[in-house]
Amino acid sequence: MRNTLGHNVTLTIFGESHGPAIGAVIDGLPGGIKVSEDSIKAALDKRRPSNKGETSRVEKDSFSIVSGVFNGYTNGNAVTILIPNSDTHSNDYEANKGLARPSHADYVAHEKYNGYEDYRGGGHFSGRITAAIVAAGAIVIDALEAKGIKIGTHIEQLGSVKDTRFDVLNPEIDAVNAKSFPTIKDVSDEMLKEMESAGKDMDSVGGIVEGAVAGLPVGLGEPWFSSVEGELANALFSIGGVKGIEFGLGFGFASSHGSEVNDPLTVADGKVGTTSNNNGGINGGITNGMPVIFRCAIKPTPSIAKEQNTVNFLTGDNAKLSIVGRHDPAIVRRIAPILRAITSFVIADLLSIEWGRNFLVK
Amino acid sequence: MRNTLGHNVTLTIFGESHGPAIGAVIDGLPGGIKVSEDSIKAALDKRRPSNKGETSRVEKDSFSIVSGVFNGYTNGNAVTILIPNSDTHSNDYEANKGLARPSHADYVAHEKYNGYEDYRGGGHFSGRITAAIVAAGAIVIDALEAKGIKIGTHIEQLGSVKDTRFDVLNPEIDAVNAKSFPTIKDVSDEMLKEMESAGKDMDSVGGIVEGAVAGLPVGLGEPWFSSVEGELANALFSIGGVKGIEFGLGFGFASSHGSEVNDPLTVADGKVGTTSNNNGGINGGITNGMPVIFRCAIKPTPSIAKEQNTVNFLTGDNAKLSIVGRHDPAIVRRIAPILRAITSFVIADLLSIEWGRNFLVK
Amino acid sequence: MRNTLGHNVTLTIFGESHGPAIGAVIDGLPGGIKVSEDSIKAALDKRRPSNKGETSRVEKDSFSIVSGVFNGYTNGNAVTILIPNSDTHSNDYEANKGLARPSHADYVAHEKYNGYEDYRGGGHFSGRITAAIVAAGAIVIDALEAKGIKIGTHIEQLGSVKDTRFDVLNPEIDAVNAKSFPTIKDVSDEMLKEMESAGKDMDSVGGIVEGAVAGLPVGLGEPWFSSVEGELANALFSIGGVKGIEFGLGFGFASSHGSEVNDPLTVADGKVGTTSNNNGGINGGITNGMPVIFRCAIKPTPSIAKEQNTVNFLTGDNAKLSIVGRHDPAIVRRIAPILRAITSFVIADLLSIEWGRNFLVK
Amino acid sequence: MRNTLGHNVTLTIFGESHGPAIGAVIDGLPGGIKVSEDSIKAALDKRRPSNKGETSRVEKDSFSIVSGVFNGYTNGNAVTILIPNSDTHSNDYEANKGLARPSHADYVAHEKYNGYEDYRGGGHFSGRITAAIVAAGAIVIDALEAKGIKIGTHIEQLGSVKDTRFDVLNPEIDAVNAKSFPTIKDVSDEMLKEMESAGKDMDSVGGIVEGAVAGLPVGLGEPWFSSVEGELANALFSIGGVKGIEFGLGFGFASSHGSEVNDPLTVADGKVGTTSNNNGGINGGITNGMPVIFRCAIKPTPSIAKEQNTVNFLTGDNAKLSIVGRHDPAIVRRIAPILRAITSFVIADLLSIEWGRNFLVK
User: Fold this and answer.
1) What is the interface size between A and B, counted as CB pairs within 8 Å?
2) Is B243:A253 a contact under the CB 8 Å cutoff?
3) Chain C (264-303) residues lying within 8 Å, Cβ to Cβ, of chain D
4) Of these four, C10, C210, D340, D362, which has the most CB atoms within 10 Å of its CB?
5) Is the pLDDT of residue D121 over 90?
6) Helices in chain C by DSSP H: which ranges?
7) DSSP D69-125
8) What is the pTM of this model?
9) Is the ipTM of this complex over 0.90?
10) How far apart (Å, rounded) are the C-alpha atoms in residues A124 and D81?
């Protein structure tokens, strides 16, 4: 609960956008997982703003592993990664103190935390925190890959520009993971143009990120209250901006008939599978051995430069707000690696519950 | 985890479709909540198949409260409701033993439970279990209403027939809860026709159920890993057939600009609110005092009479299957009260975490 | 939390002494564990009062398994055992309503549950609830024994009469489990006399129950906050009357020197062990492969016939109380099988966390 | 579970004795708790070895708060305290690699963590980790004191030297907390002599630490599986060396009669209390408003200089071991502030569950 995700393999995160540091604690991993600092760096690079139109806050993301790793391998105890905050322009935020950014968490944070919230840069609500998640996820992603389990994410939609969806029987995971702007079709330039255009309009734009997990065994998850869908959804709704999630055909099921969308089973080479995958690899909350496929709807970044109506919750007055800090006109691209990282924790946790702590190393 | 939902207020469910009984244990409620058997009966009636085209399995749903209630009030200990199974036609299922119903959990259950699954009527995966959830939910729904918190659900879509969406600033909760076939517009006859038609075709059809919660205080939920969206999503994905969930504008955000969909704040009578509600009452994972609005995509009932391709997982052969048991051609209507009940547990839990155990009685 | 014990394998209990029924839900067991109703009956018999001087409330303890078992084996879903209450003399308790039994939970229950507590027979605080735990434990005890893990409990002390302690390297588990009044030495007659004598004096008497677990693998438990000692202690302090617990030498360590009580390690036949077992099979919170040994201090039954000073919390006055209901002058003997059952859940949970769900059947 | 303690208010710890840093994350605290760096320093000073005969490893314990505190107050998000390790003599440990210290966790860590354990200085099993707990506890202890809840700990026994026990109706909390070597009677010199003497003998010695909590409301804790005794016991058994815990009269109950040890209730000034406190402030697992009193048995430090028999688990041979590192001949004094800190977390958690998140600031 709170800042902790998972049951047997857990991820705990901490930090505020403009505090001394952010970080993540991974617990429940077995001793003996190889930890590659290069993988962590590469994952952080993918999350970092780097394209035209993205925020000009570019943290170096220098991280240090302060516990849980010994001689290059997990030692079986909690792994902690620390990322100091450096490029903080805290003064950007003093001017707008009390002015609630529409669709952001400023007002609820003020109410929930009794007026003691860290209002600088969104505090604990900042996307900044996700750097720690991405760094931690790199360790787990590597461990899962060593067991033949792969997780891929791509930008299925950015504003009006659409990519194709994953092939649900054989998702293009390696292909999208190889790209810094992950799409299946060659639509990255169009998407970047859409972002840039929104930025020029002092506006922002939404999108959809699609995820796929391949190589899972049959039997992860529970029918009630710990379904694979539910566990993934709970985890992924933590990402600021995710406002919808669907598995397989998702909302497309609503207007369908069972005879069209039921997934026929088949035996080939002694292995049971399905010939379609409208259920996104999950039946009754449990993995069926087919790729797990899901899509997250991402709202436009709330922080825009255009003037908006709002309130000053310190004075109780109505007010106008134009946001001048450094912000992304679309966070969709940056969410792709975050979504991949969070998914890796959910999968590792489900595997650990089912096959025990040492599954990832044995 | 497993069959238990929640942190401070918990719901634990048990039972199989064709076992002796199903039941629910509610824990964490304070002493002093009035328990109305009439409310429980009324809630069970709403869930029961009663319309043309719905399953002919009609359980009496006679329930008994075996713990936690004393002299008509909760006594502060675990409340247990037991519902015996009576109208079980177990032999319907022996014939098809080993034949996995496409898109159902038969195959995953066989694999996960080492071949010892109760295969009769879907066992623990059966919608039957939801009767216990609905009965338990009636107690919590009443307690929430006494505190001014209302939960409503309606059928927004059934196949090709659409209802209007909730008014996001003032959802029509009382109106939809008063109906046995809950819709906002007068589309129930059309929807029933769609169900009937699917049934005649030996087929089934999907839909969308929309939920609204009004009267919530500001400040429930957490930014990370226990967002209101995440907690509700995890709970609601337990309902067999739910394959997508979105909050507020949901997937509609993907092609929107921030300037169009950000919710402007305003002060009126000293109270902060928003003039639109595209975020569905939740910012940064935390309630903002506006109605919480969400939609669940429901897949068509997997069990259809039409012949389908599948496997016999006991023999390892490909096979054909025509399902002759009693099944609903659409479970959308029946999901509405279930979704309401599950939502009530999530809300009660979030309230308890924030304001303590006695919030519901003080 | 609350009425639920464990993480991966969980036990949830419900019921009040004079309500319709008590029960237990076991969750997280794999499919395929053999369930013997005879074992459940035998375990309930051991818990039942049967000796001179014990309470004259003799429930038949007829139980029914209402979920989770199919054709004599666990089906992988929640196992629920229900035990109806029959021999309830509720009127015994109306006379003393508002009179707090000293050292019992009457007063705290009244305060905690806002005055709505079920005051009849101790309600949810009654030892009656332990019948459900013992019944549920029988299933887990059998499953553990099938894997070579044995749990034994005996009465080490009853008032002034002492049994010998377990041989810490080779505890006499089978021997004590075979007895209805479990002691190692032949002191049962003396102990019964002590109980009888206390009863005649309208008084009660305390004692110590010792437990041993043999056959555990190395590596269960965690160094911090989930040590084997901590998990067992948390579980066992739920037993009404347990007011102390110690592992291995326990409080005997306080006046010892390291050189006397450190357990030297040794290799024999390629297997590492220790030549003494002062640590009770646990180092750093983790099992070391030697027998786990612990002792629980049990206070005298609070309910005694002798007149005591107390308060009437309904009127706010000082008062006198002589308890005339049916009560045991010592619950030590009856706690032995309860302690065994609860221990079995903790062990099964620790095993499941470490080796996965199917460990007990594979 | 694992390195995380608590339900609503949680403590997560990480770090190894000779890694870059140790730390603690406190989650679930409300916004608005004053954070005093002086209190943290003072608490760390009490834990630090400072007396004759204690370890010569003297860390500066310079700490930094890297999240959750803003302008001197908690901001409502996870509070993280980081303590770098500096005075590490890692080479002390290379020589003895593979040689299991008797009664320490070396062997179990090697087995549990698949041979990847950080063996330097006990790794994650080191008492060093408790510095982070003590630092974090200082924040919670201050918050509790501001609400009138006080926690005191003293050394009741060190080897053969005994202090008096707390006055159970009015424990001497302020008095013991004011001392750097906390005892009620003037026995600190005798105790120091006992430690020094053990050290000279290349040996170590055990003891008992007693704790008291005053000012608690009635109603914390649960009858089953979350009793106050169970929650405290689970937390306190995490402290390396704690091998027994008892509440109130504890093991003294075993030979007592109910009429002697039941706590009579009385009303004075409209307030219900008891005239004795043999139950240590807890009935049926729930606080009754009297001081909570408990004692922990501490085993002698396992690391002694005297030669001991053991095994080399890397070679599988029997071996001899003389430990030459820096170690305390008794950790009893240093455990007193640790026990106080851990107790503060359990109490804050129980309060939060019962009265909501903001109890500590409202």
Assistant:
1) 371
2) yes
3) 264-267, 270, 272, 274-275, 278-280, 283-288, 297-303
4) D340
5) no
6) 37-47, 91-94, 106-112, 130-146, 173-177, 188-200, 228-236, 258-261, 332-355
7) EETTEEESS-EEEEEE-----THHHHTTTTBPPTTSSHHHHHHHTTT----GGGGGG
8) 0.97
9) yes
10) 16
